[in-house]
Amino acid sequence: QLQLVESGGGLVQPGGSLRLSCAASGFTLNYYTIGWFRQAPGKEREGISCISSSGGSTNYADSVKGRFTISRDNAKNTVYLQMNSLKPEDTAVYYCASAPAMSTDAQRMCVFKTVGYWGQGTQVTVSS
Length: 128
Prior knowledge:
Blueprint: E1 3-7, E2 10-12, E3 18-25, E4 32-39, E5 46-51, E6 58-60, E7 68-73, E8 78-83, E9 92-100, H1 106-112, E10 117-118, E11 122-126
Parallel strand pairs: 2-11
Antiparallel strand pairs: 1-3, 3-8, 4-5, 4-9, 5-6, 7-8, 9-10, 9-11
């Protein structure tokens, strides 16, 4: 059974950091484009960072550029999202998602949500 499992969410103060992990089971991430999306209450789900299968190409939403970094460790079948300088407006449920690399690139995935599988999500709350 194909699964994406997110972890690492929680409560953090403004200015703090968190690292989210997205672990895959049932399939090998090597051949997949992976993205991180988030959805705040009352808002649409948005693509915030996506990475190509090799890790050589990444895409970031303007709202997180310079603060978030996406990376992947294909040997561990895991993708990470390092989030620094967190702001209250970063509060949301964060989802990772995958799609075959042949079907989409990092930019298209983030902008057009060209996703095959979604994880269940992890809550990130930024509050003092």
